[in-house]
Design a protein that fits this description.
mainly alpha; Farnesyl Diphosphate Synthase; about 65% helix; globular
């Protein structure tokens, strides 16, 4: 793919995202094909249909885009970046399927379609999420993703750490606690605690998307540190922008229910800083992400444009 200047418009970066999303969609469809793979006994049709419903046909695919673009930055083969990005996206899709369940956010709409538990049933949705999660690690551990077992192990470790106890799942637990789901009742979180929650629930996987691409391409320690700063700032930008869109956008534009954060008592920076304050923080974080790439040349312009897109997006 050709370079995109850091001043690229949201429309230009969206077009690039769309082209990459087509490639990810095709790979995900192949990974979720009917035929059983070597080592599998069978692929139950209803479970496979639910997995496809949760993983195919929508979304910007920002996380695999970041993985592939970071991998490209360090000279990794395009097919390796695509496979690693697909693994990240499979894990992200699992999280959405489970997040939508009645026991979690109880959402009926995702990407403009019924959520998996609405299109099928709760038990099937739970199993579909489980299967998407495990498939993500299968893809990362496959020699087709990278010939080095040490590199593959590093990728698996990175994704597991970002998505588990100290990352996305832990952040979801903190989010439920703040809503008052448990005996302790709702908890009004200070700003620092909100930032920690969001860094875990949303930011960790976005940051891992970047780190996985860098490790796939053999980035050194200094590059990994700079990209870690970039990924964390980008993840925070994305979450604040999402909180703002929940207030300002509508369900048709977003493809999911909006105006639900305040109703559920969710801890957000919009609540802590006010709408205008949250917008200023969104823009500050976006520029912090760009600044983290100061040591890279124009070959990182796509990542710079992605940070600004995360702040400017409308859905």
């Amino acid at each position: 793919m050709s370079s995109v200047p850091s001043s690229a418009s949201p429309g230009e970066i969206e077009a690039r995202l769309a082209r990459h999303a087509e490639a990810i969609e095709a790979l995900l469809a192949a990974l979720l094909a009917d035929a059983a793979k070597p080592g599998e006994t069978a692929r139950p049709a209803r479970l496979l249909a639910a997995m496809r419903h949760g993983a195919l046909g929508g979304g910007k695919r920002l996380r695999p885009f970041l993985t592939a673009e970071t991998a490209r930055l360090f000279g990794a083969a395009p097919e390796q970046g695509l496979r690693a990005g697909a693994a990240v996206e499979l894990l992200h899709c699992y999280s959405l399927v489970h997040d939508d369940l009645p026991a979690m956010d109880d959402d009926d709409l995702r990407r403009g379609r019924p959520t998996v538990h609405k299109a099928f049933d709760e038990a099937t949705a739970i199993l579909a999420g489980d299967a998407l999660l495990t498939l993500a690690f299968e893809v990362l551990a496959d020699e087709a993703t990278h010939p080095s077992g040490a590199v593959r192990a590093a990728l698996v470790s990175c994704l597991a750490r970002a998505s588990g106890l100290g990352g996305m799942v832990g952040g979801q637990m903190l989010d439920l606690a703040a809503e008052g789901r448990f005996a302790e009742g709702p908890e009004a979180l200070p700003e620092a605690a909100i930032r920690r929650l969001q860094a875990m629930k949303t930011g960790a996987l976005l940051a891992a998307s970047v780190e996985i691409g860098a490790r796939l391409g053999g980035a050194d320690a200094a590059a990994l540190a700079a990209l870690g700063d970039y990924g964390r700032a980008l993840g925070a930008t994305f979450q604040v922008a999402d909180d703002i869109l929940d207030v300002e956008s509508d369900a048709e534009q977003m493809g999911k229910a909006t105006a639900k954060d305040a109703d559920k008592g969710k801890a957000t920076l919009v609540g802590a800083l006010g709408l205008d304050g949250a917008k200023r923080e969104r823009d500050r974080l976006s520029e912090a992400a760009v600044a983290a790439l100061a040591g890279f040349g124009p070959e990182a312009d796509v990542l710079r444009a992605a940070a600004r897109f995360a702040a400017q997006r409308k859905s």
